[in-house]
Amino acid sequence: MTHVHPWAVAAPEAKLGSDVSVGAFSVIGPGVVVGRGTSIGSHVIIDGIVEIGERCRISSHVVLGAPPQILEDQSETTRLVIGDETVIREYASVHRGSLKGRGTTMLGQRNYIMAYAHVGHDCVLGDDVIVSSQAGLAGHVEVEERAVIGGQAGIHQFVRIGKYAMVGACSAVSQDIPPFMMANGDRARCYGLNTVGLRRNGVSEQTVRRLKQAYRLIFHSKLNTSQALERVATEVGSCPEVEHLIHFIKTSSRGIAR
Which of 55, 81, 157, 210 could lock onto 138 through a cystine, CB 3.0 to 4.6 A? Predict the structure, then answer.
């Protein structure tokens, strides 16, 4: 049974699924859709066109669907979409898309957005992404599945973070972080393969060995990027993870963190 605290305000046009709970002093705007089983804490503001999936947990003082932090004219038609079973902790904020961007900010399923983190306009996060406390993602950032972003890290606009990558705390990331890598520093540099994360997620030892070989060729040889990728393609052996790494680097527009 859906329960809206008597001291909360939910617009009549808002669509709240079954078993949704809304805490005291929260405000739910008319363009909001909330999936069944989702809990919304106290003092939460959800406005604009926002679609929230099922069984999400939204803690107190979260702001979702606010306009982008840009100088151009804003539109009320842009959106924020949040996948099932996502957790958004205290004081975090996620803004909706912009007219000059893709128009939609998208969070995948089972994301964990920790306290005081910010996800800017037009960002796209895959499934099982962790954004740690006080980290900030500028507009148009793309984060692939199961990536981890450390506390107080700052991600420059249009940067991509590859899947299974790990960004260290307090890093300033101005170039793409390839998948499966660990990166740290100001400006962030890649310094190894995220072997612990790969093994925890069931990636085989053979694949880990291939990725280590690819890492050495790309980051520790005297080859340029194109030459290194050619060597990886011919010498390392084909598997989906290596192919994804090659494709990610080839399609990078900002360049990769070296």
Answer: 157
Q: What's the CATH code, domain 198-250?
A: 1.20.1180.10
Is the full-model pTM beyond 0.70?
Answer: yes
Q: Which SS3 state, helix, strand or coil, does residue 180 take?
A: coil
User: Counting Cβ atoms within 10 Å, is residue 221 exposed (0-12), middle (13-18) or buried (19+)?
Assistant: exposed
> Would you call 118 exposed, middle or buried from its count of C-beta atoms within 10 A (0-12, 13-18, 19+)?
buried
pLDDT in tens, 81-134: 999 999 999 999 999 999 989 999 999 999 999 999 999 999 999 999 999 999
Delimit the domains of the chain by residue range: 3-140, 198-250
Instruction: Choose the catalytic residue: 139, 150, 154, 162.
Output: 139
Residue 35 known to be catalytic: no
Catalytic residue among 47, 122, 128, 176: 122
**Rounded to whole angstroms, how far apart are CA atoms 216 and 121?**
35
Q: Would residue 43 show up in a list of annotated catalytic residues for this protein?
A: no
Q: Which of 61, 95, 118, 121 is catalytic?
A: 121
Active site residue 185: no
**Contact call for residues 48 and 78 (beta carbons, < 8 A):** yes
